[in-house]
Amino acid sequence: MANMHKYGEMFHDLLQVRRRVFIEKRGWELPSVDGYEFDQYDNPYSRWLVLHRYGEILAGVRLTPTTAQCGIYTYMIRDAQRGLLEDIPSDLLICEAPVSPKVWEASRIFVTDDVPARDRLLVRTQLLQAITDAAYREGAKFVIGIVPYLWKRWSRRLDLDSGAFGPKREIAGEVCQVALLKTKLNISKGN
């Protein structure tokens, strides 16, 4: 929120791209008004990261501290565990959801279809580096998030310091898993 004004229409564009990615392409049932996708986790506690090329959004993510509290909501994984989100299973973690300034949640992670196949690994690498750098600057040691089960394949390829933090679960037609990622990374450039 503090520097959103410096980026012109980027936040507006991000919410439109999220609508295309999550609602139109993936078919998720999410809140949408006037062409934007947003929910209760897009609040002043969150940070939004956007990778773009000359204003064209290539990838993005929302980061939220696990200490966030906005009305009855905290962060997506914890609220799912608490039974507040009917579309996400409550047994997606191996333990109680963390509430700590040292842990931030990454959600609404995407790379657009506009990114050519030859560039996708590089864009994913840049996005992961941006996620861990931003969380680290906020004081986090770890980032937690729901990721496609295939994350293991590219996390090994990128030599990420990460691991499963929950069992495989189907969410919105995709096989997913909660993963925990250390924030101080030295990611290879995907080559």
UniProtKB/TrEMBL annotation:
Sample GO molecular function, one term: transferase activity
Family matches, as Pfam families: Autoind_synth (PF00765)
Source organism, top-level taxon: Bacteria
Matching InterPro entries: Acyl_CoA_acyltransferase, Autoind_synthase
Record PROSITE patterns: AUTOINDUCER_SYNTH_2
Gene Ontology BP terms: quorum sensing; signal transduction
Similarity comment: family membership: Belongs to the autoinducer synthase family.
Protein name, per record: N-acyl-L-homoserine lactone synthetase
